[in-house]
Design goal:
Layout lengths: L1 H21 L3 E4 L20 E5 L2 E2 L4 E4 L6 E6 L7 E11 L8 E7 L17 E8 L11 E8 L16 E4 L9 E8 L2 E7 L10 E7 L8 E7 L6 E13 L1 H39 L15 H52 L22 H41 L10 H30 L11 H30 L3
Antiparallel strand pairs: 1-15, 2-5, 3-4, 4-15, 5-14, 6-11, 6-15, 7-8, 7-14, 8-9, 9-10, 11-12, 12-13
Helix pairs in contact: 4-6, 5-6
Length: about 500
Amino acid sequence: MGNRRQLSLPFFFILAISYVSANLVHKRFEYKYSFKPPYLAQKDGSVPFWEYGGNAIASSDNVRIAPSLKSQKGAIWTKTPTSFEWWDVDIAFRVTGRGRIGADGLAFWFTQSKGAYDGEVFGSSDRWVGLGLFFDSFDNDNKHNNPYIMAVVNDGTKNFDHQNDGTTQAIAGCLRDFRNKPFPTRARIEYYQNILTVLFNNGMTNNEQDYEMCFRAENVYLPKNGYFGVSAATGGLADDHDVIHFLTNSLHQPGQFQQTQQVAGDEQQKLNKEYQDYQRKLEQQKADYRKEHPEAKPEESDDWFESDNQRELRQIFQGQSQIYEIIKELGRKLDEVVGRQERTMSLISQQSSGLASQAVPSAAPGQAPPPQGGYGGDTIRRHEVDAMFNSQNQIMGVLNELKQAIVEVKGKGDAILMNQVKAPTAQVQAVGYDTQSLISELRDGLNQVKTSVHQVHQKLGTEGNCPKVSCVSMTSILVIVAVQLAIILGYNIYRDAKESQSKKFY
């Protein structure tokens, strides 16, 4: 018994392996029905083996089927129909928009003939023959069931039900959100032995294998050969509909796959034979040309290509040329900096000489003129420049304080007027005699201060031996004027407040 059991276990194991291998599906990548970055689009904007139109735009990274503008439609279709019956498609896309709600959506197609590029059903034609997988982002029927993914199979006789979002015609679907995701959303559509399976990746992670089941529908009959396509449309609301890649694999049963490989091998042998025939014809044409033109010298094929040493020398020369251009540019910028420094030094020298000529008094008769120029002359000193800057800073500070004080006074005056308006019996009165007299006194005081400052300035200008530094600086004068203004205005505000309070008792 023990020996029989030991023999039966390997036998069943071999049977299981043979059963699995018999039901194993073979995949083959179909590059003529696929596109992916980088270099998705060529220099002329075309996508190899595909055609696009409408408002679609192809770039090196993706195909924008419909941009985020109102009433835009676009589509992209394969140029040739498929030569296989079962297939698997992996599509990565982004649907992004500014609003919380988008429109209209994106559609995947497998139809008997190519659709339009500006049709009524998500940018493609109505009454199609085949499969339409719709990623609907707008809720037309107000059932709050969008974004929604659904599959609709049409035999060419039905119009799409826009009012109900096609739910009455859908064979299956699932409620999934695919808008404004951090990573591209992905959908894997598989059609094998009349079973349609759709897996969905919601784009919340960068794991490409993180799929979940959307739906699985049986007894789905599609055309044996058809065209793949992707379309999109916008309405009053608009989203960007970008397809990043579209990868197609043909599915084959084990026996069918071996037959397909045999057919591919026969085609390869046929192509090799045609290539050899072409090579023989080309050599024959070259020989005939040499007979007709004996004076023509044959070109050596070695001159057509670049050797390794030549390539290395060319790269070295290009690198040295770039280094030379960079050094030349640095030299030019250095010359500009030196020129600016020289101009600055000349301006400083001119200003210093001008101040020295103004500061040095004229020589008396019989006396030698004082020395000029050099470090021994009476030129401007560093501490004098610092003192001048400090004075300017003080003046600016005092002016800012005056500005703040005037703003505060204005604010208090506005507050007093508002209180008078809000009082039960108060009335806004015009400017009275006291205010006019106060303004006149302020004007007279400022005129007197201005006259005194002007007289002091004239005295300082006429007296040569008088020191340059004045006894009373401009800063002190401005501070005194500011204090006087603050006292007078404060007293005026206090008096008006007292008067307004006393009026409330009448």
